[in-house]
Amino acid sequence: MSPYLVRDYKIFLNNRYIQNLVNRHIKRIFPGFIKCTQVTSKHYKVLAATSFLVRYEITLETKTGYQHHLEVRGNRLNRRSYKILQRLWQTHKFKKYYYPRPIYYFPKKQFVLYENFSGQVYRSWPDKNFNFYNKTLPLIALRLADLHTTKIASDKIITLNEKIHWIDDKLRKIKRHNFAYYEVSQQAAEKIKKFLKLHYAKSHLSLCHNDFQASNIIYNPHGPEIGIIDFELLGFFFPAADLANFNIQLLTVIKDSLPPKKIIHLQKKFIRSYKNNVGRQRTRQLENALPYFEAKSILDILALYTVQILGETEKTHVRYLKKAMAQLYGRLKNLNLTLT
Questions:
Q1: How distant, in Å, are the alpha carbons of 88, 194, 200, 289 from that of 170?
Q2: Could you say which residues of the chain have pLDDT below 50?
Q3: What is the pLDDT of residues 18-44, one digit of tens each?
Q4: pLDDT digits (tens, 9 = 90+) for 218-261
Q5: Suppose 71 and one of 116, 120, 264, 269 were both cysteines; which one would form an S-S bond, judging by CB atoms 3.0 to 4.6 Å apart?
Q6: How far is residue 17's CA from residue 3's CA, in Å, rounded to a whole number?
Q7: What is the spatial distance between Cα 120 and Cα 197, in angstroms, rounded to a whole number?
Q8: How deeply is 314 buried, as exposed, middle or buried, from its count of CB atoms within 10 A (0-12, 13-18, 19+)?
Q9: Neighbours of 10 (CB within 10 A)
């Protein structure tokens, strides 16, 4: 989706409007309740230029006067991704929560309301340590494997040209704002594009999240359970792209809280746990593709952080971004991108 004008979406911050909407459709969207008595909302500013994220607190009431408080999320979502989300919910609603229940969709605005998960964003979990990651990464790998092996059909495919254009865009940002990293980044980008051209085929593609990272995962310790959010980029692509992105983004979550050997152990455990839940053919394809998509994820972060630094005024955060970029750049130089 393209960027948008905030004024076109302010209607979704009108609590009375949302309350009236819920009351009109309450029998269908919230069976067992007779009315919505209150709605409060909060708009969250996020990095994604296409996102308009709102969190709602909704109070519902039954005939007997019992009140139930519910959290609902709202965000922009293109029509084709919404249809996929609907199907994911329908095929998983009798399992433990993987995907949120869509409540209402506004096709003209391409905005969706869906039930929020109980828990907290994985990236923001307060007590992250080795044992926490060691326990939760296999759960995340299981959920990702489930997404990649789902039989849902869709014509929403990430094309070869789209992905090459994406890589070129990231490379331009690095060249313009961080030229010291450009030469190695360009060499990696050329190898990634050659790999994609050589191996791009529908038989290699699966339904992917395409922005799978700790910020788009909800962790609930009661169970424990993992939920997935933010479905704008849903579509068929290489499964290795989701795994690589999660593993590389994990470095920005852990930062310096664990020694390098333990981080490598956790990354390998995540990949191993995923492999245990998919077939042998998919495992072979994954091993071949993973280094290229790790390189692509590093380019994505280098481009993002390069632009972030330009508008950052807090010196501590600038130092963190520069250090993270240097570490990722070092990893990019050491990746073995030998085409096969």
A1: 31, 17, 20, 20
A2: none
A3: 999 999 999 999 999 999 999 999 998
A4: 999 987 889 999 999 999 999 999 999 999 999 989 987 899 89
A5: 116
A6: 24
A7: 39
A8: exposed
A9: 11
Q: Are 104 and 29 in contact (CB under 8 A)?
A: yes
Neighbours of 322 (CB within 10 A): 14
CB 98 within 8 A of CB 228: yes
